[in-house]
Amino acid sequence: MKTAYVNANVITINPAQPRAEAFLVEDDRFVRVGSREEVLAAAGSDAAVVDLSGNTVLPGFNDSHLHLLNFAYSRTKINLYGTGSIAEVQERSRKWLSERRPAPGSWVSGAGWNQSSFPEKRTPNRDDLDAISTEYPIIFTRVCEHIVAVNSKALELIGIDDSTPNPEGGEIERDATGRATGVLKENARYLAYSKVPDKSVAEIKEMLYDAIDFVSRLGLTSVQTDDFETFSSKNWKNVIQAYQELEAEGRLKVRVYEQCLLPQIDRFNQFLSAGYKTGVGSDMFKIGPLKLLTDGSIGQRTAYLNAPYSDDPSTRGIHVFTQDELDELICTAYANGMQVVCHAIGDGAMDMVLNAYEKAQSEHPVEDPRSGIIHVQITTKEILNRMLKNHILAYGEPICVGADMHCVEDRVGKERMKESYAYRTMNEMGLRVPLSSDCPVDSVNPIDSAYIAVNRKDLTGWPEGGWYPEERLSIDQVLKGFTLDSAYASFEDGTKGSVEAGKYADFVVLNGDPTSVDPSDLRSISAVGTYLGGKQVN
């Protein structure tokens, strides 16, 4: 079956043919891209013809790093995103409890709070959550996903008291008297998560289907997602089964490249022994890299820095692994056909990751590893040069600027800020910069990311002149980052990422041209059609 799409403003992301007005799709591939006349001549008389009414067409958006299953799970929890105070957290939670009436004693979960938006500028603690309920164990996850707050009932069920030692790579926060506050950081989160009941494969599928439909409506046709530790069991087999069953049922509306979070060497070896490595799977669901979480976040001062935090000299943050542990995991990956990507926000964490990559490449050389660092926020010129020298991908997350701009200068000081969040610099140096949302930490809408990236303002339009505006991305850099560069990150730039003959006919139709609209009006643009393999899915 051939379908000719005409009367379109096609932004191809193909440097050999940047623009077109029509394209021909046969089965699931683009077969001709060019003028209306060229495409109709190639289509023949039996082809269907679709008039796109002058709308803009782009390759389908590809988010290079998010947490799709976590986003799906968060949509079943108390929605704490955008709360402006601890009182509002409490109000929303009481309303949710009164409406949902969960079974007595069942766990109550919420997600999305950010104390940087609170007038109190402090983290909710056990007493704040006790004021919501002492009947239910409560667990509320911060927007960054690196911190949880729990109430006294939860602490009791977890078995945490004032003398419980910190787990390796985590912190049980205590107040000045030594009392556990109910705030659990980094690996200490799992003490709580381990008590929350797991989800079945059937439940995972339904949550995923809801989230997939949501992101598809925004023009996403591919996602690179970290899902394996969403639930307490950390059962990667259930996650893989859920995706594979959705694919078999024809309900997978996006192509999925799984970023495999397997931070324990024994679990990673079990995964490898089961026959999994990067590239195993289909064109719809495929095993991607080993993913490692090496530090925390800026907002809670858990990102690992080389020097102490400017607003709290008592800490440099948390490194989740020792250098030896990180080396072992990454060397094992290189030796067994696994790409690697590492979450690293602080310069200290990035140095550790780069040390491990250099060691692995020396001991287990890979011709084209496409290793990466996700977030790359508190950087230095030296770190960026090491990344360039070693061909390390810089997974940029420009949307995080919208939240971090309100606290990061206090955290690290103006001097370190001069070389941080340097997404334009990375592009101009020649680094490959696939772009991501880190959803549900931030909005999954690529247009929201584009707005912040090109304006260096938050979604309210603040500050007027832009925040460190010299690091604004051009709209062309953003579009390439969410299409061809993201496809490169998954070794799929030969099959997707541009509107080009021979590639999958994955594309999005927009109601405006992001390259011609005033940057301040980017958010007026939205997806009006999403196509996967030549079929409209939304």
TrEMBL record:
Residues 49-537 form the Amidohydrolase domain. InterPro entries: Amidohydro_3, YtcJ-like. It holds the Pfam family Amidohydro_3. PANTHER family: IMIDAZOLONEPROPIONASE, PROTEIN LONG AFTER FAR-RED 3. This is Amidohydrolase. It comes from Dysosmobacter acutus.
